[in-house]
Amino acid sequence: MKARERLHKILLSSCSRIQEEVSSLIGKPFKLGEPHFQEISKAEIFAEPGGKRVLAHVRIDGELQGAGCLLVGIKAAIQIGGTLIMLPESELENLGAGEEYSEELQDSFGEVANIICGAVALTFEEQYPQNVRFIRTEQEVVVPVKVVVASENPIADGPYYVMTVAMQLDNRNFGDLKVILPAVPFGLVVEAEQEKKATADGAEEASKVAPSKETREDTRGNNEIDGLERSEVAGGASQPGSPKHDIEKQKKLVDQLLHNSMAKMSEEVSALLGGTLQVVPMAHAAFSKAGFLEQAGGKQIMTRMDIRGEGHGEAFLFVDVKTAVYLGGALIMLPEGELEETARNEEFGDDARDAYGEVTNIISGVYTSIFEEQYRAKLGFVKTSMESVVPAKIDPESDEVIPHQAYYLSIGQIQYKGKDLGRVQMAIPAGVLELEDLLKPVEELTAEDEAKRGRPQSIDKEAVPPAFEPSRLQEQLSETTDILIFTDDDSEGGSIAAALQQMGYVPRVLHFKDSVNSVLTAHIQMIFLVMQEVSEQGFGVAIKISSAGISVPLVAAGPAWTRTLVLKAVKYGACDILITPSSPTDVRDKTETNLVKRAA
Q1: Which three-class secondary structure state does DSSP give residue 191?
Q2: Residue whose C-alpha is closest to residue 351's, from 332, 338, 336, 335
C-alpha cells in the first residue's frame, strides 16, 4: 500500500475514535464531518484568512521522528474547553465573543487535545507497520496571516499532510479541526519524487517516438507555437506567484477581514445600544469613484476616517440619513414612536448627531482592531468628522468631497431589533488594501471602457445589491420577507439576493450561525441554502430548516456537485440543486419552477 493511501486510511479511521473519546470526556455529543485531505506547505496552511487560532504542538516519537500540530479556531477552543469544565452557557458566549482564552480554558482544551492525539496514536498502533507515538506538548495562540513562513515558529517550513474536518458539539457547529502531520517522516516526499521521476521517464520514452520540434515546425509552419509552448506563454498569468494569482489571494483575505469586521461591529454596537444590531454582509467589490457614487443611493451621512499605521489616506463610512437618525436616537433612548417619526423626517439634531458619532467611534475601533490583529500590515482607522452628502451631486471626475481614486467597497445590511435600517457602506482606498489592480488604470481605458466606467471591474454588476431605498424603515422583517437565503458565501448570496430583488421578491440574507426558527414564518415562500463548498456544515443547516416544521421549497446551491452529494442534499430536505456561480437566469428558473410546484 502506498504511503499516502495508508496515511489517508488511518486518519479516516481515527475520526470515529476521536468522536467517541471526546464525547465521553466532555459528556456531550461531539461529531466530526467528512474529512478532507491535502499535501500542502506551511505557507498554504496559514494562508487561509481568519482570526486567531489555537495551535497545539504534537511531537512524533518512536520509529519515526517529527513535529506536527492540531489547529482550531480560538472560539472553538473556548467553547470546547469551557464545556468540559461546565461553564454556564452565558459565560461561554461572553468569553467567546471577547476571545478570552484564560489559563483554565487552556488547560481544559489541552485535555481534549490529549484525547485527540491519543485516539490518533491508538489507530496508528493498530494499522501502521512502525511504532509511532503522538505526544501533545505546549499550545499557543497564532494569527495565521502574521505567521512568517521562513521562521521555525510556530512550526517549521516544509511539506505537511493535513486532515481538515468540521466539528460539531451538542449539535452546534464550531468550525474546523486540522490535524497536521509532517510529510517527510511518513514517506510522502520520497513517494512524490518517485512518482515525478516515473512521469518524467514516461515523457522521455514518449519523446523518443514523437516528432521533434523541428519536424512539427516544418509541418505546421514556423510561426505556430506547439501546445506546451502556447500554454507557457498564455497561461503564465495564472501560475502561482503571478499577479493574477496574488490579487485573487489578496481579495479573498481582505473579504474575510471585512466580513469579520461586520460581525464584530454587530457585537460592539449591540452592546452600546442595548439592543440586537446585526450587520449582514452583502458584497465586497472594487469601484472607481464614479462607480461607487452611481450605486451609493440618496442623501447620506458620510463619516471620514483617517487611515494610520502602515497605510495612508482616508476611508469613508456611508449610511442613509434616516439610518443615522435612527441609530443615534436609539442610543439616547428616544421612545419608539418618536424615534420612527424623527427618522422619517430626517431630523438629525445635535443630540442624535452626537450619539451617532459615538456609534461611528465604535465602528472605527472595530476596523482598527480587526486589521491590527489579523492583517499583516497594521492599519488604524480614526474617525475625524461627519457630514451630510448627496452622492449624485458629487463630481466623479474631481477630488471633490472624496478623492478621485479606486476604492474597495464593503456593503452590509443593517437590522436593529428586527427592523431593516438599510445599507452601510465602507469605502477603503483600494491601494491601501493592495487591490488597485482589480480596476484598470484610467490611462488604459478604451472608449468602450469609458462608456462603462464606474462599474466594478472585479465582479459582475449583478453581484452587488442595488440601492433599494435603504432609508425605508419596515415593520418586522417577517411581515415582508418572502425568500430566505442561508449562506457562508457572501458574494454568491448577495448575487442571488440581487437577482430575486429584480424579480420583485423581498429576500433576506442570513448566515449559517443565524437562528432558523426565529425567521421561518408563514410569509416565507422559499429558501436558498448557498454553500461556498458543499459540506457537512451546510447540510447541518438543511437539517435545521427541514426540522423547523414549515414546508417550503429548499434549493441547495454550491459548486462541484456529485451524485453522492446530490443524494445527500435530497436526504436532508433539498428539493432542487443550483450550481454556483449562478446567473440571474438560473435563479429565476429555480424560483419559478419550485414556486409553481408548491402552488400545485
Answers
A1: helix
A2: 332
Distance, CA of 326 to CA of 344 (rounded, Å): 9
Residue with cell 489571494: 249
Give the C-alpha separation, 139 to 109, whole Å: 10
Among the ranges given (83-92, 99-108, 227-236, 590-599), the one the predictor scored with the smallest mean pLDDT:
227-236
Strand 30-32 relative to strand 36-41, pairing: unpaired
Q: 133 Cβ partners below 8 Å, 6+ apart?
A: 60, 61, 62, 121
C-alpha distances out from residue 364 to 188, 256, 380, 438, Å? 47, 17, 8, 25
Q: Give yes or no for residue 224 having a pLDDT over 70.
A: no
Three cell numbers, residue 340: 420612527
pLDDT of the residue at 599: 61
Which three cell numbers, joined as nine digits, stand for 212? 521533434
In Å, how far are 37, 103, 169, 546, 560 from 531, measured between CA atoms?
A: 20, 36, 21, 17, 11
Q: With 60 as the cut, is the pLDDT of residue 236 above it?
A: no
- 3-state percent breakdown (helix, strand, coil) of the chain, nearest 5: 45, 25, 30
What's the predicted TM-score (pTM) here? Answer: 0.48
Cα 304 versus chain centre, distance: 27
**Amino acid identity at 411:** I
* Ramachandran angles phi, psi of 54, nearest 5°: -100, 125
Could you tell me where the beta strands, DSSP code E, fall in 394-451? 407-416, 419-429
Distance separating alpha carbons of residues 70 and 162, to the nearest angstrom: 10
Runs of H (alpha helix) within 439-509: 447-451, 490-502
Q: Using one digit for the tens of pLDDT, what is the confidence trace for 419-442?
A: 888 899 999 999 999 998 887 544
d(CA 294, CA 312): 25
∠ CA 10-11-16 to the nearest 5 degrees?
A: 100
Which residue do the cell numbers 520540434 mark? 213
Identify the H or E element spanning 29.
Answer: none
C-alpha cell at 238: 495564472
Answer whether the bond into residue 581 is a cis peptide, omega within 30°: yes
Q: Give the Cα separation of 134 and 57 in Å (integer).
A: 10
Give the up-direction half-sphere exposure of residue 285: CA atoms within 13 A in the CB hemisphere: 30
> Are 285 and 454 spatial neighbours (Cβ–Cβ below 8 Å)?
no
pLDDT tens, residue by residue, 455-483: 333 333 333 444 333 223 233 333 467 89
Alpha-helical (H) ranges within 274-418 are 289-295, 321-331, 336-344, 350-374
Nearest by Cα to 68 from 21, 18, 11: 11
Report whether pLDDT(596) > 50. Answer: yes
For residues 177 and 167, what is the distance between their CA atoms, to the nearest angstrom?
7
Going by C-alpha positions, the residue among 572, 520, 596 that lies closest to residue 508 is 520
Q: Which residue has the cell 442613509?
A: 320
Radius of gyration of the chain (CA): 27
Q: Which three cell numbers stand for residue 561?
A: 456537485
- The most distant pair of C-alpha atoms in the chain lies apart, rounded to whole Å, by 87
Look at the block and give the residue holding cell 420583485. Answer: 504
Residue 328, pLDDT score: 94
pLDDT at 464: 41
